[in-house]
Amino acid sequence: MIDHIGIPVSDYPRSKQFYQQVLATLGAQLLMEPTPEQTVDGHYAAGFGRGHKPTFWIAPGDVGTHLHVAFTTDTRASVDAFYQAALAAGARDNGAPGLRPHYHPNYYGAFVLDPDGHNIEAVCHREAD
């Protein structure tokens, strides 16, 4: 249902590097980086995704309000890899990988706080690998 989402970041180069490392564990990569001349607000932006279409964007902006973004993946192992890569890239723990049965019996997720405090999650809805 969601085509794409964008979040503000306080340090664009730091956040770009963070998301390149972390999203690679979910099979996503930097797909597009428009120049300031190509964006509405005159800043760089980075679009990440799988295939050819960016679905997650970052750009410099006011990070006064922290957001929650959940990335879906097909295996619990990739949720674990996401969590470890995020911590290695400087994220803070906000919920170690594990089942969250209060959502549904197979909800396996991990939560971290990115460099700006956004709550970033990886989730697998399938049964154990």
From TrEMBL:
**SUPFAM superfamilies assigned:** Glyoxalase/Bleomycin resistance protein/Dihydroxybiphenyl dioxygenase
Q: Please report the stretch or stretches of sequence annotated as the VOC domain.
A: 1-125
Q: Which domain of life is it from?
A: Bacteria
Which InterPro entries is this protein grouped with?
Answer: Glyas_Bleomycin-R_OHBP_Dase (IPR029068), Glyas_Fos-R_dOase_dom (IPR004360), VOC_core (IPR037523)
Instruction: Give the protein name, as stated in the record.
Output: VOC family protein
Source lineage:
Bacteria, Pseudomonadati, Pseudomonadota, Gammaproteobacteria, Lysobacterales
